[in-house]
Design brief:
The chain has 193 residues and is mainly α. It is built from ten helices and no strands. It starts with 13 loop residues before the first helix and ends with a helix.
């Protein structure tokens, strides 16, 4: 899916399409903050994921980049799949749905399903998941959610590694970035005495 411009007809331009997705995500996440001690604006995370796809993985497919910016809108805001499709087309909606957890399930079930689902995801969804997990692992190391003890942080790293194992084979540079980030994070949360 990289390199093909399949964004919806009527989109103002390549850049306009991506900026519109960013604006939409910023509006949807406007009252949300990240869980880390700094409580940074939530929108920084989806922008980081899309930027990582463009700069590390070399993704230039606007559908993938827009879906990356929008990847948490269905899961963490009041956005509906129909609203997403009206604004950005069926391909973006499908990609966002593919990386979205079912929040009606218990956390343990959602985590288990991410591990099980990862190998069966489309290549573009795997790219988004890889970039998302890389960003989250970095946050768990450097800006962990308030109240997360080292053990919970280590558990997160172990789980993220299992999810990413099912996403491998889509982009060597992005996988290397994840591996490097995970190695560094393990050094932070499991320092040697």
């Amino acid at each position: 899916m990289t390199g093909t411009d399949t964004f919806p007809p009527g989109a103002p331009s390549r850049v306009g399409f991506l900026l519109r997705a960013t604006e939409f995500a910023a509006e949807k996440h406007r009252d949300q903050r990240r869980k880390g001690a700094g409580a940074s604006p939530y929108i920084n995370h989806p922008i980081e994921v899309a930027t990582m796809l463009a700069t590390v993985a070399g993704v230039d497919d606007l559908v993938v980049l827009a879906a990356a910016v929008l990847h948490d809108t269905l899961e963490d805001t009041e956005t509906s799949p129909a609203e997403l499709e009206r604004a950005f087309g069926p391909e973006v909606r499908l990609l966002v749905e593919e990386v979205t957890d079912d929040k009606s399930l218990e956390r343990a079930d959602r985590k288990r399903l991410q591990i099980e689902h990862a190998p069966r995801m489309s290549a573009p969804a795997k790219l988004i998941k890889l970039a998302d997990k890389t960003a989250n692992v970095s946050d768990v190391a450097d800006r962990p959610p308030a109240g997360w003890p080292l053990e919970r942080r280590r558990d997160y790293l172990d789980w993220a590694e299992r999810v990413v194992a099912g996403c491998r084979g889509v982009n060597g540079a992005l996988e290397a970035r994840f591996d490097e980030t995970l190695r560094r994070a393990r050094g932070v949360v499991s320092p040697r005495a």
